[in-house]
Each structure stands twice: as C-alpha cells, then as structure tokens.
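thought: fold this chain, then report.
action: predict
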Amino acid sequence: GGMGGMGGMGPGQMLPEGTALSGMVKSFDPIKGYGFIIVQSFPQDVYFKADGDQIVKGCQVTFTLKYSKDGKPQGENVSLPPQAGDTLAGKVKRYNPQKGFGFLMVDGQAQDFYFQKKDMPPEFQDQFLDGAEVQFVVRLTSDGKPQAQDIMVLAMPDQVGEKRSAGEFESLENAAKRQRIEPSGGGGGFNMSGAGFMQESFMQVSPAGGSAGAGGRHTGQVKSYNQMKGFGFIVAPTVQGDVWFRSMGLPEDLQQLGGGLPGIQVSFDLMFAADGKPQGANLQIAA
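observation:
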C-alpha cells in the first residue's frame, strides 16, 4: 500500500520549499545525527539532520522546508526557537518606513523577525535600511512568535559599501581582511568585510561616550565625503572611531566645497547616536 501513502501527501506538497515552519521533535538520534519533526497540518513527519546536543525529543524547533529528490519533506536550518531576551545579530531583510514595520533575518534561524518602526533608533526610522547590519533583543508575542526590539544599527547598507570602496582601513588586520576577501570578486564578499569592519569599529566606541549624549566641541579633518549620499566622516584625534556627519548640517561655505571637503580641518559638536556611534553637528571650518 505504498502508493496509498503517496496520495496522502497532497496537502503537504502544496507548501513551497523555503517555507519557515515550526514543529516538535518526534525522535532524534544524536549519534547518527538525524531525526524527525512532527508539524501540525502537515501529513507526514519531516526528516532532518543536525549536530548538537541542544536538540532533544519533545523540544520545539523552527526550520526551513525543503524536499528531497523523491519528494520527501526535509528540514534545513533546524534551530531551537530564540528565547525572549536573547540578543542576536542579523540584517534588515526589508523595511517600509511608510507602513512602519519591517523584518530582520538571522543566519541559521529559519524564520524572520518582525519589528516596528519605533523599535529602530529615531535617527534611522526614516532611512533606507534594507541590508543594514543590526543587533537586537528578542521578544515573543503571546503565541510565541519572535519579534525584534531594542534594535541597534551596527552598519548602514550604504556605509558597508562606502567603507569598502573608500578602501580606508587603518589597521593592518583590516587590510589583511580586505585582501583575503578581495579575490572573491565582490559579490557577497563585501558584506563580510563590511560587517566585520563595522562591528569592530562599533566595539571600539568608548563606553564613556555610549549614552552620554553630547560630547563637547572637537576639531578634526574630513576623511571622506559622499555628495550623492549626503554624508561623510571626520577623523578627530580626540574621538575614537570615525565621526559621521550629514551634508544637511553643513554651513554654506562647506557645502560649496563639495568634493573638495576631504582634508579640510573642521570643528564640530560631538553627539552620540543611540547605538553609541559618534556623530558631528554644527560643522565649521576650523580657524
């Protein structure tokens, strides 16, 4: 009666590959490294492979659906659902400022994390964020769906590109990282170097400046400026990390310099973003 079993597969087969599902582990053999998951409303158990001692019979897991060559359902990226309060790092999959919500994706997690506009730091709420690197805290809805809150932006999508194309990596370690990644011909490579670099520069921000708000008046040199995107970076000896500034905050004499800005000495008021990144406001040409 093998064929009869096939007939019962109808409804399950309707789910496309790549669907994020959750279910309960029916059995798992840690020595052989495989097991089966029971999924509600799915006609048969889902086979999966996993290594790791966290997965045990009876636990809830999330996974991505895939089909074997002979049409049998399989689970990929099988992982324990994130717990409330976990801090995860991921990327913005898509964000719509007009509608006021978006989704984050995390490596190794089958499902995306929903977030609301108010969970983003205020200065990023109306920006194009698809592809931005973020860190966030997990919260669970009453029915156990994970959502993101307390989001910190580690790297903006255009900064990741900008940092790389400018090729300005001070430390040798970063230069080495760049060379390792360069031969892959760009592609997905640049995200990696951007992510690593941004994360490092993010980590170096001194805790003192973290949430102190304003940090007084400083003087530094414009390191790079992107007229198209309307922002740039200043290097100041008194501030750790590059100081981000917007062209909108520039006085007219500086705006007219445009592409001639890099190398100019400027003074600025130091501010800190919600994620601790230094930003410059009220720029003026330094006397």
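thought: worth noting. The longest strand covers residues 20-29.
final: tokens above.
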